[in-house]
Amino acid sequence: MDLQIFVxxxxxxxxxxxxxxxxxxxxxxxxxxxxxxxxxxxxADEDQAGEKVNALMSFMRxxxxxxxxxxxxxxxxxxxxxxxxxEIYLQAFGARRSLVGEELEVIAGELKxxxxxxxxxxxxxxxx
Length: 128
Description:
It is built from six helices and no strands.
């Protein structure tokens, strides 16, 4: 399977990083490119791999928006976004760390105080 096809698709999709500045966008794209082999590992065919890469891209898109717009979100909205992000991570990577109740509250509060770049890093590490 030619992973470069998936890498190219990821790099050509503008809305994965459209809410970020250049350095933040580069960081998220580099992280995503680095995940392509991981999410496609064990896929039976290109269709299945494509579904996994689509889920990866959905995770990146959602992380992009959450990180960039977190200041304008209510704590409840941030918690809902984090829960949704966990579901998308599950689709891409097949594993998810469960975030519930009070933990979601604490993490949402922490994210509000972090710079965007640190928020992105926290989001990608949070579910791994």
